[in-house]
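To: structure desk
From: M.T.
Subject: fold request, one chain
Message: Could you run this one when you get a chance? Sequence is below, nothing fancy, just the single chain.
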Amino acid sequence: MLKGLLYLASAAVLSGAVAATAEPVQDGGDAGVALVTHHPREAPRPNIVLILADDLGFTDLASYGSEINTPTLDALADQGIRFSNYHSAANCAPARAMLLTGVDSHLAGVPNIPELIAPEQRVNAHYQGVLGNNVVTVATLLEDAGYRTYMAGKWHLGMAPEKRPVARGFQRTVAMMDSGADNWEQRPYLPLYDRANWFADGERFTLPEDFYSSEFLVDKLMEFIDSDSNQAAPFFAYLPFMAVHMPVQAPQEYIDHYTDTYQEGWDKLRKQRRERAAALGIIPPDVPMVRMATTGDWGGLSAEDKAYQAKRMAVYAGMVEAMDAHLGRLIAFLKARGEYQNTLFIFTSDNGSEASGPPDPRSFGARMGTRRMGYSVDGDTLGLKGSFGTISPGFASAAASPLAYYKFYAGEGGMRVPLIIAGDPIPLKQAISPAFAWVTDIAPTILDYAGVPAPASRYGGRQVETITGRSLLPVLSGEAMAVYGPEDTVGYELTGHGVLFQGDYKLVVNQGPLGDGQWRLFNTVTDPGEMMDLAAREPARFQAMLNAYQAYRVENKVMPLPEGYTQMGQLLRNILRKELASGVVVGLLTLLLLLPFGVAYRMRRGKPT
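Reply: Done. Structure tokens follow.
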């Protein structure tokens, strides 16, 4: 009973705020639901800091149920609203495209990361995996409205000169252009890349000797802000961290905080996080959850193997804490400059936790790949310079607790991630919103707070896509409980994985190796673990949502997959074309990337049980 009251408290807090401050709802709308984009605010324009983690799971922050020490982000959560029903894309580049433009990833030119797009799809202009010229970034709109605009972090939206962040609205930039890279030095993390492609202000850049990614990115962002300290204009700062994308690496001082934390294994951790999230009001009480088929038997491991697996997760936790600590330095910097009070902070993740790390990186096949790249997977130095860290599928499942699936899949574990919007411009404090929110909502929310109108069908002398996301300002100001009504739909597609959200319901299909290609219907408000398929129980709703999903595909120009397509298979084929003369590289990449997926196939052919 107590857990139930705690879960309902967030809605009560927001409901009380709505009752006290609400404006009339648009005619025909549902009470407490804002169905149109809010009008730009007339208050002084705030600074805006958009912070993006990479591959962070739903319960990886203490304020969402984690055991990881994240005091900076927890303090931000106390200064605003945590969203418990926010969703992003299931992998990184599409999420980043939607985050920065408010437009569906297919229309924005980034239906998938470029490394996984089939040649048969590339004949279509919007299937290049780089940000199209038919969309306008929020940075461009803010720059044109007088904002100073900065970026420090991972880009992955195109490396051609016209695609670089400095050409997409950011005045000062330091950017990692690829899907990832080493966090300790300037080196690629996969044979897919010849080098680690870092750029500063649009030109190739050499990293300093004392580089650690989270520290360096915060240092550069503070440098950019400080260099324009004589300007009265507000700033927009985009900080897309490399944490916690593989290779998972962290300073020893942070790893040491978790030496004994994960000795009881992934099943225990997944259960503990579910209980803490429920106690916090992030999820309903007593949510059932699946045990993913890729989760190994902790009890069957030797003592040595348990220690190694626990160390992998300790490095991961250390990397999260290090990111939080360096973010704390940025906030202290803003406070010292007197900028904090007028700053809006938005924190989220591009997608859910990453489960592609092999069950045992010390196995012969996995070790061959990392050794060939010059990396070590030895337990003593795991996380330090020269090491290649990942977490196992078991701990990835715990990072997403109590959700099912992970990155690359359309299950909640791949798409539902933390969202914190905080700062003095937010009137509500210490609140949790259960309102559905989607990644395209971030750009119009930023524009509303900046008082900048969204672009029409033309901008800068060219035809552009209209923003389809909805501003969350009505929820943040307490004027409405939600910005989507029960009949509104939001669709999403990634390599045959499909989703349609409508009200409390989610229509979803997950493909192999973990999915079975069957459409299912869930109430993800009461059943975020996606345990109870309602398709047979509610056939009319199921069919109506299938029809709406097909309409989404047409409207957003979703292209069919080539026969036999799989994500990892296509990655291998793309590399074969690029590296035809280097069979060694191809073989090593195959071992490194595809081994865990081969294990998944052997463990289960179908959905998790």
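Reply (cont.): The first strand starts at residue 47 and ends at 53. Let me know if you need anything else for the meeting.
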